[in-house]
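Appendix C. Worked example: LARG2 glucuronyltransferase
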Amino acid sequence: HPLFYRRNSIQQLELPQRKAALIVPAFETLHYRLTFPKSKAELLSMLDMGSLYTFRYHVWPKGHAPTDYAKWRTATVPYRVAWQPDFEPYVVVRRDCPKYDQRFVGFGWNKVSHIMELDAQEYELLVLPNAFMIHMPHAPSFDISKFRLSAGYRGCLQTLREEFHQDLSRRYGAAALKYLTAERSL
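Step 2, the predicted output written as structure tokens:
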């Protein structure tokens, strides 16, 4: 049972005593109706048959690529991954972890900035080997439509990103340079 697995993982990984973000690998389907896989083996079979895909691999692979799905396929224990630009996994964290930055409401950069802040605070990014989630198709949100259609919206988001980088630099000093350097090299 997924909830039992998650609680068991949290206990085994001593999450209450550790600064860690447990990554739940994300998948998606293009079908509005799907029989949810009951196990990792069943999910892998669906992935191989093409009824599931790694999340957003065809439109935004950078968002979840650091999860290392090839490694996940055969993993039996949690494994650590490194932060990379635009990484936005779904995570389980302690309640006292940094909160989402409230500047990023609507569409764009909420999860990316959160993971960046966790990494800046030296959280371990640990992929759970037997957990997964499946994103179901739905109509585009109002905010993503605004992002796609409005240069003003995209410009505001860029300004907020720059402010966020400046704030990280003030809080974490030289350690935060890697985020700005990675952003500029994209």
